[in-house]
Amino acid sequence: MKNLQRTLVIGCSALALAGCGADEIVSPGTGGNVTINNPAPSPAPTPAPTPTPSTLVTPAAACPSIANPVQLLDLGTISGPTGEYRRCRLPNAFTASSTLPNQSGLVYELNGQTDVGVDQGFGSTGNNVTLDIEPGVIVFASGNDFLNVNRGNQLNAAGTESQPIIFTSRQNVEGSTSADSSGQWGGIILSGRAPVTDCFIGTEAANTCQRRVEGATNQILYGGTDTADSSGTLTFVQIRFSGFALSNGDELQSLTTGGVGTGTVLENIQTYNSSDDGAEFFGGNVNGRRFIMVGAEDDSLDTDTGVKAFFDQLLVVQRPTAGDTVIEQDSDGNEEASPRTHTQINNATFVVNSATGDRGIRIRGSSDFSLFNSLVWDQAGTVGGCINVQGVSATRAAGANDESGPALFNSVALDCATDFRGGGGSSVGDVEANFNAGTGNDASFTNSLVRLTGVSTGAPFINGANENGFAPIFDANAVSSFFSTRTYIGAVTSEAANWAETWTCNSATVTLGTANTGSCDSLPS
Question: Is the pTM for the entire model greater than 0.85?
Answer without folding.
Answer: yes
